[in-house]
Amino acid sequence: MTSSLDPAFWSALPWTALAVVAVLAVTYGAAKVAGKHAVIDVAWGLLFCAVAVVAFVLSAGHGDDARRWVLLVLVLVWGLRLAVHIGRRSIGAGEDPRYEEFLRDRGELGIVAVVYGLQGALAWVISAPVQVGMFLDGPLGLLAYAGIAVWLVGLVFEAVGDAQLERYKALPKDRRPPVMDRGLWGWTRHPNYFGDACVWVGIFLVGADRWPGALTVFGPAIMVYLLAFGSGKKVLERRMAKRPAYRDYMARTSGFVPLPPRR
């Protein structure tokens, strides 16, 4: 960032990176035992939790305590909820078709680099607002409180959207509509991805009201891009669009930002 950051911040960076590596190592071992690399999806939220905990511990006595606690709680609540939700959903399931297609014909080294190394690097970079924010001085400002509100909107969208989809999938197939288009899913095809985006924009805003927190805007920008245009929405819809009912759903429902459904 800049020289205005406490030197302790720079000393903390190797430790937050080591925390990411540690979570990935455990995840890789769990994936080998489970026989599927989709285990990394459970670890995605935990990577951010590990970074937040290490940054919180190392920033003691350096950053504003209120901001440190807010960032820690926001990341832990989001990351742990996501890990538990994906973990419950994946019990008894086989390999994710996305990984089967993506990892076909790749050797073990390529799998480690692409699945684990890439996601670990992304989590470490995206978490920059947390790592920098932990070391920022000065009380929480209006922008930080706005960030908490945006984070809350995101968490509600993500949690409610996931719960609605779970109830839909629990219906008997003969009573289940061909596509989930009720509740939040009638306003956006991806309320969980939109919620994720809001969560990370909110976390960024908590630190952005103190310089140089605003320079970490690349973190939420990468997350939003991945969700809306990269490995999130784009990859999922490539598969789902093979179903006629889903193509009709796409024609009348916003792809990301919630909007009233079209006739």
Structure description:
- This protein has 263 residues and is mainly alpha-helical.
- The protein has two domains: 1-137, no CATH class; 140-263, no CATH class.
- 69% of the residues lie in helices and 0% in strands.
- It is built from eleven helices and no strands.
- Helix 1 (7-34) packs antiparallel against helix 5 and helix 3 packs antiparallel against helix 8 (191-208).
- The termini are far apart.
Largest sheet: none
Elements, N to C (H/E):
HHHHHHHHHHH
* Overall radius of gyration: 19 Å
Q: Which range does the strand content fall in?
A: under 5%
Number of strands: 0
Q: Tell me roughly what share of residues is in helical segments.
A: 55-70%
- What's the rounded overall pLDDT mean? 89
Globally, the shape reads globular
The count of domains is 2
Terminal residue distance: 48 Å
- Structural class category: mainly alpha
Instruction: Count helical runs.
Output: 11
As residue ranges, the low-confidence spans are none
